[in-house]
Design brief:
The structure holds 3 protein chains of 3 kinds.
Chain A: E1 6-15, E2 18-28, E3 33-37, H1 44-51, E4 59-64, H2 69-72, E5 76-79, H3 93-98, H4 102-105, H5 113-125, H6 141-153, E6 159-162, H7 171-186, E7 190-194, H8 201-204, E8 207-212, E9 214-220, H9 221-224, H10 227-234, H11 239-253
Parallel strand pairs in A: 3-7, 3-8, 5-6, 6-7
Antiparallel strand pairs in A: 1-2, 1-4, 8-9
Helix pairs in contact in A: 5-6, 6-7
Chain B: H1 9-35, H2 41-48, H3 50-60, H4 65-87, H5 94-115, H6 124-129, E1 139-142, E2 145-148, H7 149-167, H8 169-177, H9 179-184, H10 189-211, H11 213-230, H12 234-262, H13 270-288, H14 294-322, H15 331-337, H16 342-354, E3 358-361, E4 364-367, H17 369-391, H18 397-407, H19 413-422
Antiparallel strand pairs in B: 1-2, 3-4
Helix pairs in contact in B: 1-7, 1-10, 1-11, 1-12, 2-4, 2-5, 2-11, 3-4, 3-5, 4-5, 4-10, 7-10, 10-11, 11-12, 11-13, 12-13, 14-16, 14-17, 17-18, 17-19
Chain C: H1 3-14, H2 19-44, H3 50-57, H4 59-68, H5 79-103, H6 108-130, H7 139-146, H8 154-173, H9 175-183, H10 185-190, H11 195-217, H12 219-233, H13 240-264, H14 270-288, H15 294-304, H16 332-339
Helix pairs in contact in C: 2-8, 2-11, 2-12, 2-13, 3-5, 3-6, 3-11, 3-12, 4-5, 4-6, 5-6, 5-11, 7-11, 8-11, 11-12, 12-13, 12-14, 13-14
The chains are: A alpha/beta, B mainly alpha, C mainly alpha.
Chain lengths: 255, 447, 345
């Protein structure tokens, strides 16, 4: 139990008292590639951000490797959505990748040559070795995404949380990222990836988490990724549950 | 500074009139600055117009207001245009672009004024901080009445702004909330943007010449932001901001001549106090605003907690009677089951007794028929929810209780019926407890 | 003044022979360096106008210090008391900004506008009282708004020098953390760097620099030093470190040249001249700078007839792919949404 890379129980996140995630239980076994699937507004990004303590949690518990995130943050790497940053920022690819090492380098200590070498290796791993010194706005969308992936790889983590790394990227990048994910899994690592493209789920992932505010299914692809579950995930929410939570929100916010 | 010992209508009346007009005119257009996230543009424009004033003065050689007014307005519009130009370079955000433009123009204005100091009697301090207190001294006759020139100017500006907001209301709403969409459906949001910028410049110039720039800057932003906290509807927001702005002006002037006396001074800057008053109204909105206010929220939470406690109390008594326990539970026993402090429980017991839902019998409490009716629907809702969560939401049995505890308080008759239908009319919940039927007045526990 | 005397005055000024000029030039240059370095980070954090709001927010503190100083037995014009007042009210202003942004549903620009105008209004109201005190016309207070560069004392200069050293130490020590904060706040928080702490540190440095700078160059011109050099540097480089140094250099040169011009030509206020020199360098930068400079963009367009002006320069358009992030048009809301993450309702 304590070896599970990620174990979520009873996680509830509310935004303005209205639940965005409702009573989520997920256990992720080690060495798996997990796709998180659900419609827009289903709380997929919220799930990752809540696990990492980036947004307040109303109830529930999240354990990484049986411990709290604070204790094992060096074993967890996070890839935010590409749109979340300004790609015009005056910085080049290798410096972005080095950011993955900042925690390890420590407060106030400078980045050294060996750190940059590690970063360069990670960039080579995602096929961007030659573009290390390019400013990030001179990279294509797919290359930018690969820079973010390299920033996660450089942390040599055991668990990777990725927010839509395959959204709007070119085919080459998609293959590169999927290849990287597979080699991570083969090395016994775990990756949890928010994914939008249903047709590729079976090909890319071992397990899926189907999410729409509440958890619809979580398990191996062949068991959980069924038409019935998908229908439930995308075919609208439980109306009564929604009505009740709305009534709660109304009562708590207005009179 | 006028050392008024009392409120003199012929002085203070006009000062307040000027303040109110300035505040209303600014807040009307200010709404759209706040919504477009360019709140600081008013501040930028009112600093940047300095060179416009100076150049107009140097060209015409007079302090007549019209040329200076035009000069200032032109530079004001230029500020908005330059800001956008720099922003469009893609490297610098709007705030910084504004900062570059207005500080530069201000510096240019300062240099022009100082260079021409021998010919110009233009005190930047006076330009920027105005002297609303001097309003009543410069009047023009209107009919039989001597009306201050400032009041007439600001009145005209207010009417123009009002007309602008009314005439272009639809377009303003569209461009404020989604300029990209406005462009996409073929509406020229740029043109409206510059019209708005022109009015902002006109308002800023007309106001600070007479009442000082700090008042305009405050009135562009603060009343609109306050109104934004109180409503989601644009029409209401615009109207409310104008009312708040006018109120701030009146309160501001009143406190400028009253408050300092508490500390042994005479009076202080009216424009400054008007800005402070608008801030005070914002604080008031944050604290007691009906929707988002801190106190109303606390109160609602407190009342809700009370309601939930009373519900829990009824349900507890119901379950106790359901188990056919011999003695009615005492306050002490209840407190073991419901973790609340003694006073809250006492209040709840008192409330429910007064409402005739519970009665006390030999030291304990028990439900009256009225109380039983309410309790039965609560327990019914609780158990139906448990059934629903297991049936439909796939929640495990060990978890359902805590959720049902929360939901039971928010299930009206309609929702209960629907729960029953969706769970296919169960007779007992997943724990095996019977589900009371609806509105069973006689003996709900004998199910 | 005849021609000979004028020439001599020029020589004295330019060679910094005059003690007074020397102090002024050195002090403003040091101030420029500090403001330039911190300014580049506030610019990248998209909080360039923070300095605007905070410097306005200092006025009530200055006024209150002026009123309170005699009560605790200090002279009302004693500089440490006034500076302490300015600092205290700057901190209250910062707290208000952080509070409003976090707990009240308002956008960042509105929050800055509110703090700026309400605090400044309060300041003016308090100054209205100050003018009635026996200390009389608070000539010293005017200088906080317009600056009195010409009369910077050696003590002021030392204060500014210390601030500059402090700034460079602060940025030198936290360079990579500040860069991370400005580039990717979410990642910084996920890696458990205290983003709130870093933000407070950054704002604290803005307060310190503004407090010492207000005296020297005045309020508006202080804002200019925090914004213009950093904005100009943005057009020349693709590295944060280079940008910070360049910004410091541009600010230092502006201060040096501006102060010298002002010292040698009569009737040119030094604060304003510094800003105008900085603005001139900004114009050069936005026109000629290799990063999105106007001429660079024009040359680019002519060379490849690809992106029209206003669209991000993109030398590697060939390896961009279809389906890439579309450019946001004139739409301000969309831009603004990206600009102030976390403040959207």
């Amino acid at each position: 139990m304590s070896d599970l890379p990620l174990s979520i129980s009873g996680l509830t996140v509310a935004y303005q008292r209205k639940p965005v995630l409702w009573d989520i239980d997920i256990d992720i076994p080690p060495g798996s590639l997990v796709g998180v699937i659900g419609p827009n507004g289903a709380g997929k990004s919220t799930l990752l951000r809540a696990c990492l303590g980036l947004i307040p949690v109303a109830a529930g518990e999240v354990r990484f490797f049986g411990q709290s995130y604070r204790q094992v943050d060096s074993r967890v790497a996070y890839v935010p959505q590409r749109e979340s940053v300004d790609w015009d920022f005056p910085i080049n690819a290798i410096d972005v990748v080095t950011m993955g090492l900042y925690r390890q380098i420590g407060w106030c200590r400078p980045v050294r040559k060996r750190h940059r070498e590690t970063a360069r290796e990670a960039l080579q791993q995602v096929g961007l070795g030659e573009l290390a010194d390019r400013q990030i706005n001179q990279l294509s969308g797919g290359q930018q995404q690969r820079v973010f992936l390299a920033r996660a790889l450089v942390q040599r983590a055991d668990l990777y949380l990725m927010d839509e790394p395959l959204a709007a990227v070119d085919a080459a990048t998609e293959q590169a990222i999927v290849g990287t994910l597979r080699s991570l899994r083969d090395a016994g690592k775990t990756a949890i990836v928010i994914h939008h493209d249903l047709p590729t789920v079976r090909e890319y992932f071992d397990r899926v988490v189907l999410l729409n505010v509440r958890l619809l299914a979580s398990g191996p692809v062949e068991e959980a990724f069924t038409d019935e579950n998908l229908q439930q995930t995308y075919g609208g929410r439980l109306t009564l549950l929604d009505r009740a939570t709305e009534a709660i929100a109304r009562r708590e916010i207005r009179t | 500074m006028i050392a008024t010992s009392d409120w003199l209508w012929e002085l203070d009346g006009w000062i307040v009139a000027a303040g109110v007009l300035c505040a209303v005119a600014s807040s009307l257009v200010g709404n759209f600055l706040v919504l477009r996230r360019s709140s600081l543009l008013g501040d930028a424009i009112s600093h940047a117009v300095l060179p416009g004033l100076a150049v107009a003065f140097l060209i015409t050689g007079s302090r007549q207001s019209l040329p200076m007014f035009i000069g200032a307005v032109i530079v004001g519009i230029l500020t908005a245009a330059l800001t956008q130009g720099i922003r469009d370079s893609g490297k610098i955000d709007e705030g910084a672009s504004m900062g570059v433009v207005f500080t530069t123009l201000f510096a240019l204005g300062l240099v022009l004024i100082v260079r021409a100091a021998d010919r110009v009697d233009l005190d930047p301090g006076c330009v920027l901080y105005g002297a609303i207190e001097l309003t009543p001294l410069d009047t023009v006759p209107v009919g039989s009445l001597e009306v201050p020139r400032v009041v007439i100017t600001l009145g005209v500006v207010s009417i123009i702004n009002l007309a602008f907001v009314v005439v272009f209301f639809k377009e303003l709403r569209l461009t404020s909330f989604d300029p990209a969409l406005a462009d996409a459906i073929g509406f020229r949001s740029q043109r409206l943007h510059y019209l708005l910028m022109t009015l902002v410049a006109v308002t800023a110039v007309a106001s600070f010449e007479s009442v000082g720039n700090i008042l305009v800057v405050a009135m562009f932003v603060v009343p609109a932001a306050t109104a934004r906290l109180l409503t989601d509807r644009l029409g209401v927001m615009v109207g409310l901001s104008a009312v708040l702005a006018a109120a701030a002006a009146v309160i501001g002037h009143w406190s400028a001549i009253t408050v300092p006396r508490w500390f042994g001074y005479t009076s202080t800057t009216t424009a400054g106090m008007m800005a402070v008053a608008s801030g005070g109204l914002l604080v008031l909105a944050i604290v007691i605003g009906p929707r988002q206010g801190v106190l109303p929220r606390l109160y609602r939470r407190w009342r809700l907690a009370g309601m939930i406690l009373r519900d829990d109390l009824l349900a507890l008594l119901f379950r106790s009677q359901e188990r056919r326990s011999e003695s009615a539970p005492t306050a002490g026993l209840i407190r073991q089951a419901l973790p609340v402090n003694r006073w809250r429980l006492r209040l709840a017991l008192w409330n429910e007794s007064r409402a005739g839902r519970i009665e006390s019998v030999d030291g304990g409490y028990r439900l009256t028929p009225v109380g039983r009716l309410r309790a039965s629907s609560l327990v019914r809702a609780h158990r139906l929810w448990e059934q629903y969560l297991v049936d439909r939401a796939g929640v495990t049995v060990d978890r359902i209780h805590q959720h049902a505890e929360r939901f039971e308080h928010f299930a009206d008759r309609d929702l209960r019926d629907q729960l029953e239908r969706e769970t296919e009319f169960p007779s007992s919940d997943p724990h095996g407890s019977p589900i009371p039927s609806e509105e069973n007045r006689d003996n709900p526990s004998s199910g | 003044m005849n021609r000979y005397l004028l020439a001599e005055a020029w020589t004295r000024t330019l060679l910094l022979q005059d003690h007074n000029t020397r102090v002024v030039v050195i002090a403003t240059t040091a101030l420029g360096i500090a403001a330039g370095v911190i300014g580049s980070f506030t610019l990248l954090r998209r909080r360039a106008l923070m300095g605007d709001a905070l410097s306005h927010a200092m006025l009530p503190g200055i006024g209150l210090a002026f009123l309170a100083a005699p009560l605790i037995g200090w002279s009302e014009k004693s500089l440490p008391v006034l500076l302490a007042g300015a600092c205290a009210s700057g901190i209250v202003g910062t707290g208000t900004i952080l509070f409003l942004r976090r707990y009240v549903r308002l956008n960042e620009d509105a929050v800055l506008g509110i703090v700026l105008s309400v605090f400044f209004g309060a300041g003016l109201a308090i100054l209205g009282l100050v003018q009635q005190t026996s200390g009389g016309h608070a000539a010293g207070l005017e200088s906080f708004i317009y600056g009195k560069t010409a009369s910077i004392t050696t003590t002021d200069a030392i204060g500014i020098g210390v601030t500059a050293v402090l700034t460079i130490t602060f940025v030198g020590c936290l360079f990579k953390e500040l860069t991370l904060l400005c580039f990717d706040e979410g990642f910084a928080a996920a890696k458990r760097f205290s983003t709130l702490g870093l933000d407070i540190g950054l704002m604290g440095m803005v307060i310190v620099i503004t407090v010492v700078g207000l005296q020297a160059v005045g309020l508006i011109l202080m804002i200019a030093l925090l914004v213009i050099p950093a904005s100009a540097a943005r057009f020349w480089t693709t590295h944060v470190a280079t940008m910070a140094w360049l910004s410091a250099a541009i600010a230092a040169v502006s201060c040096l040249v501006g102060a010298l011009i002002s010292a040698s030509v009569p009737d040119l206020p030094s604060g304003a001249m510094i800003v105008l020199v900085a603005a001139a360098m900004f114009v050069v930068s936005i026109s000629l700078g290799p990063q999105s400079g106007i001429f660079t963009r024009l040359a680019d367009r002519r060379a490849r007839l690809l992106p029209p002006p206003g669209v991000r320069r993109n030398p590697s358009a060939e390896d961009r792919v279809a389906g890439d992030r579309p450019e946001v048009g004139v739409g301000q809301t969309k831009d603004a949404d990206r600009r102030y993450p976390g403040t959207a309702p």
